[in-house]
Amino acid sequence: MSDHQATSQNLTPVDAQHHNLDVHDPDNVTNPEHVAHHIVSPAVYGMIFGVLMLGTLLTVGASMVNLGPFNAPIAIGIAVTKAVFVVLFFMHVKYSSRLVKLTVAAGFFTFLILVFMSLLDYVSRAWGQW
Asked: Coil, helix or strand for 93?
């Protein structure tokens, strides 16, 4: 067995110059998704937790106030804001490539189309009765 190959004692693959092949070479990156990952500090997660708890309190508070037809839009607005924070920070979309951001945006756009179509159906069934 050649000394350039991995042995049973040393399972690290090496090349002919004894360079470790497991080491990440940032100059040899062809896919932008394979670059170093962004590390989010616990303080950022704590702030996002605080924002989500504030959103929850706002939702509870808004549910106790009679705002007439504005109750549902306000609750949905708060929920969408909380969902955006979860997607951006806990799913790490904020630090991802533009392709990932485009995919998430396309998902939200599709969701909005489905909600809009459902609301059109709802309004058209009650036409003239409200």
From this structure: coil
The Cα diameter of the chain in Å comes to 87
Contact (CB, 8 A) for 97 and 32: yes
Element spanning 115, H or E: helix 98-125
- The one-letter amino acid at 95: Y
- Smallest CA-to-CA distance from 89 within 56, 36, 51 is with 51
CA dist., res. 108 & res. 22, Å (int): 39
Task: Determine the residue type at 105.
Answer: A
H helices of 18-97, in order, are: 42-64, 71-85
Query: 78 and 62 in contact (C-beta within 8 Å)?
Result: yes
CA 55 – CA 18 distance, rounded (Å): 56
List pLDDT tens digits, range 88-116. 998 889 988 899 999 999 998 999 999 89
Mean per-residue pLDDT of the chain: 81
Pick from 76, 37, 81: nearest CA to 55: 81
> In 3-state terms, what secondary structure has residue 27?
helix
